[in-house]
Please model this.
Amino acid sequence: MENEKPAKKRLLWQLFLSTLYISAFTFGGGYVIITFMKRKFVDGLHWISNKEMLDYAALAQSAPGAVAVNAAILVGYDICGFTGMIVAILGTILPPLIILSVISLFYSAFASNLYVALVLKGMQAGVAAVIFDVVLSLGIDAIKEKSILSDAIMIIAFFAACFLNINVIFIILAAAFIGVMKAIIYNKREAKR
Amino acid sequence: MIYLSLFISFIQVGMFSFGGGYAAMPLIQQQVVEVHKWLTMSQFTDLITISAMTPGPIAVNSATFVGIRIAGFWGAVIATFGCILPSCFIVSVLAFIYRKYKNASEFGNVMSCLRPVVVALIASAGISILQTALFSENSVKLSNMDIINGVIFVTALIILRKFKCNPILIMSLCGVAGLCANLLAGAI
Model:
């Protein structure tokens, strides 16, 4: 065990630097960070297999929370157990923590400037466009599945959130409940066969 | 206790946002704008704009931004910690379960009912942001509409749908277009 210690230290350091680097340079959120992780940990360092990485991506996306943090937890745990997990989380959250801290210090001075305010106003319209683009892509994919249940859930959830102002958490819990019911019914049908 | 309410708010954001990226947006909006009124809708929209242009997950970015504005550096650290804490627990448990029951259909069934909700919630949050971008606060009337921003929104959406180009580039161009158009309109 004594011999493993320096090796493990180096492994952890490398894991920290890799996650730090990935997090500092990935713009555009969770789906992008997973491609970067694959390039680094699968193709570059050969620490995990391609199939494992895909499984981790699916898990990270289906669990609650930020996809980048979830993926870092899974990869860190795989590579170096609990310590690896902590190190990977730190590497992932430090860059946004530092960058946003700096920006928020400037924000007040920034936002009261007329020119900056005009640029931000225009960018708000841009952000709205980006969000609607994402919604259209996701919505079209969801409708293509041709499941009446999922279409109904989507429409009801939209009305509940947008017009009835129902708490988002209740909407998610209700859908999860329907999902559990669906799983139970599905299992009973399988058992009958 | 501002630290405690920041912590509890962002634990909820971390625990109930599925799907990553913009999926966390409606929850953050609810906690930060509606429940605690830490930011106005216009500041929140600026936050989403800044998050989209800087690296890192929206939830972590928001936790830092809100935390530091409300309670300084430690506020940022505590909010960020709250935001990732549920992930740490849930994802480690999931990883363990996953290795045991890799091919279970129950998991897929529950997820198939959550995915459409995520789409609906993002759409709903998108509408709030569009409202802020097109109308001055709290008055949605056609006569109040910011025509310049309306044109920018429609043009940007068409370009994004047709050419699938980099969203950060589009947003920056929207900012420049907004500045130029407003200065021109002021000059006339």
